[in-house]
Amino acid sequence: MAFEVPPLPYDYNALEPHIDEETMHLHHDKHHQAYVDKANAALADTDWAHESVEHVLSILETFPEDKQKVLRNNAGGHANHSLFWEIMSPDGGGEPEGDLGDAINDLFGSLDELKKAINDGGVNRFGSGWTWLVHDGTGLAVYSTANQDSPIMQSDEPLLGIDVWEHAYYLSYQNRRPDYLEAWWNVVNWPAVAERYAHAVGKVQAAT
Length: 208
Prior knowledge:
The chain has 2 domains: 21-86, Helix Hairpins; 98-207, minor pseudopilin epsh fold (3-Layer(bab) Sandwich), CATH 3.55.40.20. The protein contains 8 helices and 3 strands; from the N terminus they run αααααβββααα.
């Protein structure tokens, strides 16, 4: 089945005042749709047209060279944005609980230190990209990627990613990317991130 933009799990204005309604319309309906359309066009009439986006990204280097860049940008954009909508919520914020909360405290010392590491990754990402919390097969890790590169491309499990392309924040925050990153934590959906963490840990345990 061809890739499709998933519907938002909340109203377009539900994340205000932290993320405005107009940005959500443009970001979800226009930008994400464009990634899906271009990725589907690149995969049409190939043996991979009905594969999951995760599988496509995991075998990116096996594609013909003329398709690799298109899929890196657009299948990557589809995967990244599909996660982005899921890990935000109008009831977001607060602190993670359970195993995820324990893992964050063990590695980073506190949630505030994790936020600082992720925000620093976003602020210092030159140009467009993402800043991530991932499970790298051994535990939690934080890094940033350029453009629409996905952690899946390096066999990591993305748990939380913040989009730092200007289209994600410019209408409300202009060039104040640090302000956007600080505000974003008011909409983080920790239960969704925790579910992804549990899935990643389960995959590792099943493989050992």
